[in-house]
Design a protein that fits this description.
This protein has 325 residues and is of the alpha+beta class. It is built from seven helices and eleven strands. The strands form four sheets. A five-stranded mixed β-sheet has the order 9-5-6-10-11. Strands 1-2 form a two-stranded antiparallel ribbon.
């Protein structure tokens, strides 16, 4: 005798749907945490690749590339001038891009420079003639569009980066690991996360884009004096950290009369949207945790780091070693 199957009632169906929705709500935060952890691992791996590239370059030239200039770094520069990231292209399996020269290479988005959690990265290409917000003007003071990048130049597209190079390590001449980093490679930041595109409601600069190929030669090597805010060396298009345009004593209790000398003495910004981020500072993508690459090539995620510890980790020769843990 065949038994007749009883269909679900509407109430039973609704109960089942409610249970499934409840389970999904319980699982979703865990899934998001796992996904964020996986994305953070990608960022750490990218940073390790950059650190390894710097060490391979150092083996060849006994010095790192400069923040911008020729490599090996000479002042005044000779040869092809490019950013630290441009000079690292042969060491990150992008030699074919490197051989096209800096003017062509700058348009390429590079996979190793994209952090999955950087919501500002987009397609990885920034056009200086069309990507600017409507309220921004190339004639605005403090952060002008480089005239040589848009005037008489058909290539106005630049590749973006989710990472910044520490100006205090690479500097204008690069660094010799044995002679130039007495604080120790394991105590000095080499690269760190930073929004590819950032802006804020007010301030100077108000808008910035992390263009990995951007750079200009310094107008001076004397950083004991303030630099003009409208200088192309100061503006927010560098994929650079560890830099300000100020001299004089730092107005914080822990530094006393220690001068800025254009060195950044404040930590990265945590838990800020890309629309309220300082274009000259670095930012975290994952709450109060930021991924960094140290001078020895290792990458790590550090949490709740303050101004004092961050500033000590950015400087390479101040005798202010800190414990990032």
């Amino acid at each position: 005798m065949l038994l007749k199957r009883r269909a679900f009632t509407l109430i039973e169906l609704l109960v089942v749907i409610a249970i499934i929705a409840l389970l999904m709500a319980m699982l979703l935060p865990a899934i998001q945490k796992v996904r964020a952890a996986a994305d953070q691992m990608v960022s750490l791996n990218n940073l390790r690749q950059l650190g390894t590239a710097v060490h391979h370059a150092h083996l060849d030239y006994k010095r790192t590339p400069p923040m911008f200039g020729s490599y090996p770094a000479i002042l005044p520069p000779t040869g092809v001038q490019g950013s630290v990231f441009y000079h690292l292209l042969p060491y990150i399996e992008a030699d074919n891009i490197y051989k096209q020269g800096p003017d062509v290479a700058r348009s390429y988005p590079l996979k190793v420079l994209k952090a999955p959690l950087d919501r500002s990265y987009g397609e990885g290409v920034f056009d200086l003639t069309s990507s600017m917000p409507s309220w921004w003007s190339s004639s605005g003071t403090g952060n002008p569009i480089p005239p040589w990048a848009v005037t008489g130049n058909s290539n106005t597209k630049w590749g973006l980066s989710s990472y910044a190079a520490n100006w205090q390590l690479f500097g204008d001449k690069g660094a010799n690991f044995l002679a130039s980093v007495p604080d120790g490679l394991t105590n000095t930041i080499m690269f760190c996360e930073k929004y590819a595109v950032s802006s804020r409601p007010a301030g100077n600069p108000r808008y910035g884009a992390n263009l990995w190929a951007y750079g200009v030669l310094p107008i001076t090597t004397d950083y004991t004096a303030d630099l003009p805010t409208d200088s192309l060396y100061v503006n927010g298009y560098w994929a650079r950290s560890g830099f300000v345009n100020r001299s004089g004593p730092v107005p914080t209790a822990w530094t006393g009369t220690e001068p800025w000398q254009c060195r950044c003495m404040v930590c990265a910004e945590f838990i800020v949207p890309d629309t309220n981020a300082h274009p000259l500072k670095t930012q975290s993508f994952n709450g109060n945790t930021i991924c960094i690459c140290l001078g020895d090539g290792s990458a790590r995620a550090v949490r709740n780091i303050g101004d004092k510890a961050w500033a000590e980790a950015e400087t390479r020769n101040r005798g202010d070693v800190t414990d990032l843990d």
